[in-house]
Model the fold of this input.
Amino acid sequence: MAPPLLALRDIRVAFADQVLIDGAGFALAPGDRMCLVGRNGAGKSTLLKIAGGLVDPDGGEVFLQPGTRVSYLSQSPDFGGAATILDYVMAGGAAAHEGEAVLSELGLDPVSATTNLSGGEARKAAIARVLADDPDILLLDEPTNHLDLPSIEWLEERLSQFRGAFVLISHDRAFLRRLTAGCLWVDRGTVRRLDKGFGMFEEWTEQILVEEEIVQHKLDRLIIAETQWSREGISARRKRNQGRLRRLYDLRSERAGQIAQTGRAALAVETGAASGTLVIEAKNLAKSYGPRTIISDFSTRIVRGDKVGLIGPNGAGKSTLLKMLMGQLAPDSGTLRLGTNITPVILDQSRATLDPEATLWDTLCEGGGDQVMVRGAPRHVVSYLRDFLFREAQARQPVKALSGGEQGRLILARALAKPSNLLVLDEPTNDLDMETLDLLQEMLTDYEGTVLLVSHDRDFLDRVVSSVIALDGTGATEEYPGGYSDWQAFIRNRNNLSAAIKSAGGSAAKVERAAKAVTKLSYKETRLLEELGTKMPKFQSDIAKLEAQLTDPDLYTRDPNGFAAISARHDALRADLERAEEQWLELEMKREELSGS
Done:
């Protein structure tokens, strides 16, 4: 086994009288591809800075193999005295030609001044700096923040080819699943390691928490309070997941019918709908700024309950289209009709400001008292704060005591409490940690009104939206039922079909065969569907047997270790069954859609 390139041992970090990290450590070997995961405020960024030599711990040691080059990507890059982007990149140690090559791939002009970069451009420049130096170890803190989808996919591809080791902190689940082969979980001051990719992280952490609860059922109440949010949150999400997934597929099916109708001539003469059913109807909208076309000939019809995601590269016009659909920005041509009784709540990229001196209680109960009106119904403020993962003790704390992720959570709590039947969210996932993303996903899934959403988080889009509107940056738009992955699959199939038609040479029979070839389940998918149909009854049978054993009231007293083992096996089988049901449902829906195409 090769010696580690980097090792942290018995690291201790304290702020005032609070110990953040106590005896934590990890080792990084050549080729390791790790994610650093944990709740907001657990110390992930601090550990990464210690690993990069930017912060000294209060205790412990850091070992770095002599000659090992480490590059660290901060959440907030400091351009210092660098006049141009290339100057900044070269200051990291890269040669000019290497810096120019990476900047070219990212679409940045090397001679652009660093003083007027957008958030996305600044992030790209910082990424170019750490990649151009070709280090042995990359330490990346939220590398996808403020990047658009094409840039995220470019970075994924680049990191997949990276020959060194890396550690990632990110809230982007799709990004982590694609790239990582191991997980470092920062939990209650320590670091636990899983030598499997992020796709196994939630199951692994749930298993640990369940075992801890069984074996250490008399833990100090403070420890229980600290772990409760995670234990209950993960379990609840798994239990609710199937119902939510089915509802989302139902929405996507309905949306497919609506989108199909948009192109009909009958739409032009449609005179009305039941009050409140129609939310937005746009016909042939167009918008340009000077010679540049932002939106060209865009039409859609959005009805109550639709959850629509707007996707596309930065600068493609997503925010512009959102403002036009809300009537905040007049189009150059085309018509817009908003439905009756629309009560929108808008959360833009700048987010609402919070008073740092106000308490969480006062922030939500601006008129005083202990009740907050949540979409027209009274809730006790502490009960509502619990919905957003805040502890009762935090209710009377000032906003300034919250971490960045917790402040984002409070902003969402305040916005979502307002009466509304239309939520407009422009990049709501920026800077949010995973626990808050999970919370927002659940809130939007259960929301009975209409949602318009701009996001670059692929996993989030897949879990929430019923359709996507894709903008390509040239003014062209296309609407498709489903999430981001569905859209990508459609594009791949369409490209494959185009290639097949071209190779068929115009023969009608060959074209038809080619079309069928790219619109049916693959052999692998067909086999998996058959296997799942066999596995699921077996899982159900085994779960029933274990549940029968667990109903024995004397089992825990008689054999606590046996009880723990049976419980762990039961939970693992439940997780296996739920994953199998998810896969089966997705493949069956796909099969039905393709058979009807």
Summary: The mean pLDDT is 82. Residues 428 and 455 are 7 Å apart (CA to CA). The two ends are 53 Å apart (CA to CA).
